[in-house]
Amino acid sequence: MYLHCTEGERTLIKKLIGEGKTYKEGQKIIGCSAKMISNALKWQTKPKTRGRKRNTTIRVDHRITRMAKKHPMISSREIKEELQLPVSTATIRRCLREAKLFARNPHKVPLLKKKDVFKRLCLSKNTVTGIKWHNLTVPAKRVQDITEVGESSVSEESDPIDEPPESIQELTELACLKH
């Protein structure tokens, strides 16, 4: 561990040692320890680092990694907003990669929302023909019943080939009306 001294003390120590004074004599003149004198003689200025300066400090990097470890499903944009950082999301992802925390992507596929289910049903109803729609929507057991009996249990007014069962039909109507 280096004991710190000022630039003036450092030059004085180098001057005294250069004149041939011992550590003990320099200690008494300056009023410091022998370790401080040896540290002052070993001391060298650090060269400037190359490249661009970092946007984030070490403390901010630790806050980002702590947040990412606490909430594994959180995205880099959400980390930026929650910590109110003035850096880009790419900088946050870079910081996380340096901390060996890769890909701020969810661990599993999110569940479909009702809106997405409606859109899918509306699309399939509009693109699939009546017979194919019937095959998709009518359960296999009901299809067997229809073929065995020869007539469906559905009334004559509603043709099962043209229309899907009521529950799915209601869903698709809602979807088509909403969007």
TrEMBL record:
InterPro entries according to UniProt: Transposase_Tc1-like (IPR002492), WH-like_DNA-bd_sf (IPR036388)
GO molecular function terms listed in the Swiss-Prot or TrEMBL record: DNA binding
Gene3D superfamilies named among the record's database cross-references: Winged helix-like DNA-binding domain superfamily/Winged helix DNA-binding domain (1.10.10.10)
Signal sequence interval, chain numbering: none
Region (Disordered), start-end ranges: 147-166
Domain Transposase Tc1-like: 62-125
Biased composition (Acidic residues): 154-165
Pfam families documented for this protein: HTH_Tnp_Tc3_2
Protein name: Transposase Tc1-like domain-containing protein
Organism: Electrophorus electricus
